[in-house]
Design a protein that fits this description.
This protein is α+β, with helices and mostly antiparallel strands. The protein has 2 domains: about 130 residues, Rieske [2Fe-2S] iron-sulphur domain (Rieske Iron-sulfur Protein); about 200 residues, Naphthalene 1,2-dioxygenase Alpha Subunit, Chain A, domain 1. About 20% of the residues lie in helices and about 30% in strands. It has 6 helices and 19 strands. The radius of gyration is 23 Å and the shape is globular. The N terminus is likely disordered. The structure holds FE2/S2 (inorganic) cluster and fe (ii) ion. The site of fe (ii) ion has 4 residues, from loops.
Length: about 375
């Protein structure tokens, strides 16, 4: 149970918060589009876009968070609310070591601990380090900044990564789009194979004219699933041009990460991770980071970004249409087998992750090894 410590001599208005009891957690983990998964890493910001000595303000799961990179290059995250009188710390100054609130000049280290209260006079003995802006675990992995949202910080899970990149040098680029729906709808769409020929029908990708029956093997993997390695479909001009010695592996990880890599004769040449980060109940940030391993080709990043933005823009457009329908809060048939099975698994995985954290027990992957068949 986490509580806010009482600091003698201070008038505190902070509410004491406690974790929901297990029974409450069981009630909370039902319903589509009604709750967020906690105690897990969320993609927060592309590392390349945050220089040393800079900060950026973000809202993640409705929480205002200040993300920064100190003068040594290390990333950090803390609540973007001054614990004194609530002014956002992002509106103050950061000198590369300490954040200064613009209201009364209180300073905080990158760990959120208060280091200075300028109004105190010399003989006013007060231990300022008892005051803290809440710090969040923050990591930079494969050039992306992730923040852990939740109370279970003693035993942090692994940060999701783009696959197939171990011991390989790569270039990378991230495209960011805002999806106007709850993460549950955005995630179901991200891993739904049935929308592909309808939504992604570009001349360079595919159309509904060449729909075929597909059959793919899925296995439970980590806190998600993997569609085992196979040759990519021949519908796209892109794959027709590259030839047949290509293999692809697609996988999913909580909280909303679709990962895919392509290899030629066993060596990865392209990898990507699409991540979903809830901003609030009706906005989800989609970040897609592409990694490519051909040396000296970082200059192609505007071309890569163009195609990724075109492709994901199609998902965004359909989500904007979906948002119109969702306003009437309809009852929905979210998943129809087998094309809907990955979406169904997402809801099972999410629920099991929440319950396993609430019950302090290991996560038990609910995905069942299966061959899924659909037309797309
Ligand atoms: S509100 Fe931040 S120092 Fe007073
Ligand atoms: Fe899509």
């Amino acid at each position: 149970m986490s509580t806010t410590p009482t600091i003698p001599g201070l008038l505190q208005t902070t509410q004491v918060q406690s974790e929901p009891a297990v029974a409450t957690a069981r009630e909370q983990v039902t319903g589509v589009g009604t709750w967020f998964l906690r105690n897990i890493w969320y993609f927060a910001y592309p590392g390349q876009q945050l220089k040393s000595g800079k900060t950026v303000a973000k809202t993640i799961l409705g929480e205002p968070i200040l993300i920064g990179r100190d003068s040594s290059g290390k990333v950090f995250a803390m609540k973007d609310v001054c614990p004194h009188q609530a002014v956002p710390l992002s509106m103050g100054r950061f000198d590369g070591c300490q954040v200064e609130c613009p209201f009364h000049g209180w300073k905080f280290g990158v760990d959120g601990v208060c280091t200075e209260i300028p109004s105190l006079v010399d003989d006013q003995d007060f231990n300022v380090c008892r005051i803290k802006a809440q710090a969040y675990p923050c990591r930079e992995v494969q050039g992306s900044i992730w923040v852990f949202i939740g109370d279970h910080t003693a035993d942090l899970p692994a940060v999701p990564v783009a696959p197939g990149l171990t011991d390989i040098k790569y270039c990378q680029s991230t495209v960011t789009l805002m999806i106007p729906t709850h993460i549950d709808y955005a995630c179901a769409a991200l891993i739904d194979p049935a929308h592909v020929p309808y939504v992604h029908n570009a001349w360079w990708w595919r159309s509904t004219r060449n729909m075929k029956e597909k059959s793919k093997k899925y296995i439970p993997d980590d806190n998600g699933w993997t569609m085992v390695k196979h040759q990519p479909p021949g519908h796209s001009i892109v794959f027709k041009l590259i030839g047949k010695k290509i293999e692809t592996e697609i996988s999913f990880r909580l909280p909303g990460c679709r990962r895919e890599y392509l290899s030629y004769r066993g060596r990865t040449f392209l990898s990507g991770i699409s991540t979903l980060t809830p901003i609030d109940e009706t906005h989800t940030e989609l970040n897609h980071t592409t990694y490519w391993t051909i040396p000296g080709t970082s200059f192609i990043s505007p071309i890569v970004d163009y195609f990724v933005r075109e492709f994901l823009g199609q998902d965004k457009t359909i989500a904007e249409m979906q948002e119109v329908g969702l306003r009437s809060k309809p009852n929905l048939i979210m998943t129809i087998k087998d094309a809907g099975t990955p979406g169904h698994w997402y809801f099972l995985l999410k629920k099991e992750w929440a319950l396993s954290r609430a019950e302090s027990r290991p996560f038990k992957n609910p995905v069942i090894e299966s061959i899924l068949r659909w037309r797309s």
